[in-house]
Amino acid sequence: MPTYHEILTTDLSALNDSADRWESMAGKFEKQEGVYRDKVYGISMGQTWEGLSADAANATFKITLKEFKNAQTEAKAVASLLRDAHTQFVTLKGKLQTARDEAIAADMQVSDQGLVRYDYSKLSEGEKTALRHDLDYQASISKAVRSWQDHIDQAVRAVTEADDGVRIALKAVVVDSNTNDGTEKGFNADAKGDIEKYEADEVRDIALRINHGEKVSGKELSELQRAFRDNGDDKAFGRTLLDGLGARGTIQFTNRLNDLAHVRDTKHAGDYTAIETGLSNSLATATKDTKSSWYKDWRADMQKAGVARYETDSQGARLDKARGYQSLITLMQHGGGYEGQVLQDLSDDMIEAEKKNPDIWDLKHEYAGKRDGWFANDPVDGALGLMSHDPKTAADYLSDDHRMKYLMHDRDWNVTIHGTEAAKATVYSQGLDADDRVGLGAALQAGATGMDPSDEHAKYVEHSDDNKHILKSSVKYLADEGDKFPPSLRDPMAKVFANHGSTIHEAMSSANMAHSPVPQDELYEVTKQISKSQDSYADLNSGLNHAMVNGVHESGQQDPKDSLTRAGRTVGFLEQARVDAAGDPEVAEFKSKWIVDKAVSYIPVASDDVQAGVDYVTDKWLADEQQKLDDKAADENVAHYENRNEQLMALAEEWRKSHGSDSSSEYGPEDAIDQAATAGIERARGVSGESAK
C-alpha cells in the first residue's frame, strides 16, 4: 500500500521508461523470429529433409516459432499495461496534490506524511485568545480538520486501489493462457494490454465460484468491492466481465448475492449490496452505446435469459422460482445512470414476453414493504420506476399511444398469487401486489411534468409537447377506468394536475366545452377519483389554488372579470367532484387534520404577491375543509358553494387587490364568484351525467 509520501515523491516516469524497454524487447523477439524461421524452422520445410524425423522436428520447431510470436504479444501487452498504469497514477497523483493544495488554501497544514492540522500561525493573538474560550469555534476547526483529512485519505486510497489493479494485471499477463500448445509455462499468446480487462477476469472468476455455491473469503469479497468501485465507469471492464459471465451467469451472480444478503449471510448484507451496486453500475457503463454490435448481442442474449426461471433461496422459500428479468431489474435498481434507450428496450422486451405468457411474472405472496420490497417481482413496473429518474426518457416512452394504452388499460397488473387457507387446502388467487403500479405512477409523473419525482430539489420546468401529450392521454385512459381507477395512481395524477395547474384550471372553468384543453367529462372522472384520497385531494387543490390566484393576478387581461369567473367555476367543479367521491361507499370520510405543503416543487415559482395570495387562499380553503371535520356534517351527496365560502371569499379579495372595485359592497366580486361556483357545480354535474339536485 503506497503512502502519501511515496505517492508524491515517486518518479512515475520510470514506468514509461520500462514500457519503452518492453517495446524494444518485443522488437528484438520479432528479429529473432525471422532468424529462427529462416535458419531453423525453414530446414524442416525444405526438400532435403524428409521422413518421420523431419515431421517430428517440424512440429517442435513450429511450437518454438509460435513462442517467438507469443513473446512479442506478451512484451507489447506488458508495455501497454505499464503505460496504462503511468496514466492512471499521474492522474491520481495530480488529484492528491490538488487535495493537498486546497487544504492549505483552507488554512490547513499538511505534513510530509499526509497528516492534516489547523495552521494556527495565521491567527492573530486576539483570535488565538478567542479560540481558547470559544468551544464552538474549536469544534468547527476540529470538524474542518477531519473533513480535509478524509479528503486526502480518500485520494491516497484511490491510488492504492489503482495499484492493486496494476498488480493483478501484471501478475496475470505473464501466465500462459493455453496449456495445450505444446509448452509448459510458455509465453502468453492472449496477453492483453488493458489493466481493467484483467481486473474483470478476476472478478469473473470469483463470481463464477459464487455462482457454483463455493465459499469465497472476506479478502475476495473486498477485492470484488474494490474492483467495481475502481472500474464502475470503465467500458472495457464492464464488457469483459459481462462477456465472461454471459446473460445467464450475470443473473445467477445477482441471485446468489441476493441469497447471501437476504437469507444465508445477512450479517454481511452491506458487503453483498455494495457488490451488487458495483455490478449494476458496470452494467450501465457497458450498455451506454446502444447502437454497438456488443449491445445488440447482449440484448439478444438477455431476451433468452430474461424469461428463463432460476432457483433462488428467496423464491425457493415460497416454493417458487424467479424469472431472469425480475432479477435483472432488481440488480439495476441498485445502481443508476442507465441509458434511456436501454430502459426502453428492456421494457419493450418484457412487455413482449408477457404478451406471449400473461402469467410470466406471477409469484406467490407479496413483494412489498421494507422486508420484501427489494425484489422486482413486477419487472415492467420496476423498469418504469427506473425510467422516472430520467424524465425525458419517461416522456419519450409514454408519449407513444400504443404503450400508454397497454400500460393504462390493457395490461394485467395482477402479478401476485395470494394464498387463503380453506378447510382442506390453501386456495390461491391472482391479485395486486401491495406496491402496485408504483413505477408506472412515478414514470407518469416524470413524463408529464419533466421532473424526477424522487428528486427533492427538482424545480419546475416548462412543459414539452410530450409532457402535454402525456397529461391528456393519461386523463383519457384513466377516465375510461371509472371506479376501477387504480388507487395507487391517485397521488401521482394529483401532482400531475397541480403541475399543469393552469391547463387544468382552464379546462375546469371553460364555459365553452369545445374550447376546453382537456375534455371536461374525462377530466371530471379523473378529478373525482383523485378526490377519494385525502392527501391526493390536498395536493390537487393546493396546486389549483396556485393556478387560480396566478390567473387573478395575471397582467394584460382583456376582461379581468373573466379570471374571477374562472376561479369560481373551478372551485365549483372541484367541490362537485369531491362530493361525488365521498358518495362512494368504499371511500372513508376524511378524518385526518389537514396539512398542506405550500412549498411544493412541482408548482411553478410565483411572484411574492401571487405566492402570498396562494398561501392566503389555501389557508381559507383549509379552514373550510377543517370546518367540515369539526362539524362532522353529512354532505348529503350534494355540492354547495357555501362549503367553500371562505376559499371563494379569499379569491374575491385577491381579485379586489389586483383589480380594484367600484364599490365596497359585498355584492360585487363576492357575489360574482358565488354565482360562478354554482355554475361550475352545475357544469360538473352535467358532464358527470348526474341530473341537477
From TrEMBL:
Domain of life from the UniProt record: Bacteria
Region span, Disordered: 652-693
The protein's name: Uncharacterized protein
Native source organism of the sequence: Streptomyces kunmingensis
